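>> received
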Amino acid sequence: MKKCLLQLVLLLSLIHTVQAQEKVDSNKVKVFALPLFFYSPDTRFGIGAGGITTFRTPVSTQPSSVTFSFAYTQRKQILAWFPYQVYFGRGKYLSYGELGWYKYVYQFFGIGNEYDNAYLEKYTAQYPRLRATFLRNLDHGNAVGIRLAMDNFKITQYDSSGLLLQKNITGWQGGRSFGAGLVWWKDSRDNRFYPGRGSFIESSWYFENKFTGSDFEFSRLNLDLAKFFTLGKKTILALEGTAVVTMGNAPFFNMAQLGGTRRLRGYFEGKFRDKHLLLAQAELRQEGFGRFGGVAFAGMGTVFGSAGESLEWRPNGGIGLRYQLDKKQKLNIRADYGFGVKSQGFYLTFGEAF
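>> returned
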């Protein structure tokens, strides 16, 4: 843990040193603070406080953002999280990620791609979280850099008769997950918050082992593709595809997962988890009257443990409402209702799913 904290301090010091040389245009700083009231199948109802700050440096063509939130949920969960995306070094560098601390009640449905809703195992975990990616912008929308991630996962309650313990699933006792990786992306989106045209590609290789300070040993390849089409003055078609390949023995809480607010809305987060993942999603976005808009979405995804397995695709669909906090930056609050097979969920949060 001391090693993780030291590396975290060094990272924050690096960001501060570079950003101290930046000048932020005070006329372009916007702060939205509001009480939080939200719902998701994983948390049920939650209350708290939060907000988002957007700003630009004079030479940056893209907005930076920092989100700050604290919440307490109906399931007695505590969530404190600070996602950020900051441009610095006169727009040459970008850092994005998340700092957080969580006490969370999770639901575990097993590993694999089964629909067995009859089985449900709950466990409680608390942990600090670090996600940090540092990129150097190159020509033509390309960027390369490094990624660091840390979860110091402490499981405080679990089912002694459940699968996690009985099958001795990797990570059932918790543990320190700390790793690093390389990232490349190509970005031609016209807006980071609400793209109307362009595309986004991110490819990454991530690894954990004893040399990175982790209790686990595995590596992961990840590919995300997104494409955006303007069909009319206020109509956008958004498409996304994701592939994840894991090698080694990842803990169950770091496996590729479907469900939640972004990947296959309508299923509990982590409803389906395994070493590998394939996902395709489409969303039709319509700006409406004033600050309001709507969406309709559909997708399909699968997880699997080896290349020889037959793929069972899990579908989803849904509709959503949007409220535009910032008309210029097109920053939205989104409310989505998603449904899958024998499953459904309502989500209220900041920003688009992809």
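>> The chain is about 5% helix and 60% strand.
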